[in-house]
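Sample pair:
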Amino acid sequence: MEVPRPSRTCSISRRDFLPNEPFFSVLTGENGLFVRKDFASECWTGPPEKFVGWWKSTVKHVVDHATQQVSGETLQSRFESLYEQLTATPFGEADTLYILTLLLLRRKLLRHEKEITDEQGNRLLEVSALCTGITYHIPVAMPSQKRLEAIQQELVRVSEE
C-alpha cells in the first residue's frame, strides 16, 4: 500500500500551506486504503483515536519549473541555428545540438525516426520536426558533466534573452 503524497492544503481550514511552514499529517485506514490528512499547526489538536501514524513536516520550498522552462519555440530556434552552423563546420557544437535534440524529442517537437551510421562511422540520430516535416541528422555526442553544466547555463541565458 502506498502512502498518499501531502496535499499542501489544511484538511480543516482549506488554506494552502506556505513555503517552509510546519504542518502535521495523520494516516488512517479506511476500507483497506491509507487516507492521509494534513493540518496547519494552528488546526492540529492531535491524532484521532484510530490512526496508523502521525508526523510533523515542513513544506519544502518548491521551484516552479513551468516558469523556468525554456519555451519550445526558443529551443527550436536555437536548434535550427546550431544545425546550420554544424553543417558548415561539422562537430563544432555537436554536444549542444545533441542535448537540444533530446530536449525537443522529450517535448514532442521532434520525432525520432532511426539511428544511422555515416560513411565515417559516426552515429547519427535521424529526427524530423513535427511542425515542418524537415528531417535532420544529428551526431550522437554526449557531453562531459562539465560541458553539460555549461550547456545548461547557456540554455538558461538564451531563455532570458
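The chain has two domains: 1-62, 68-160.
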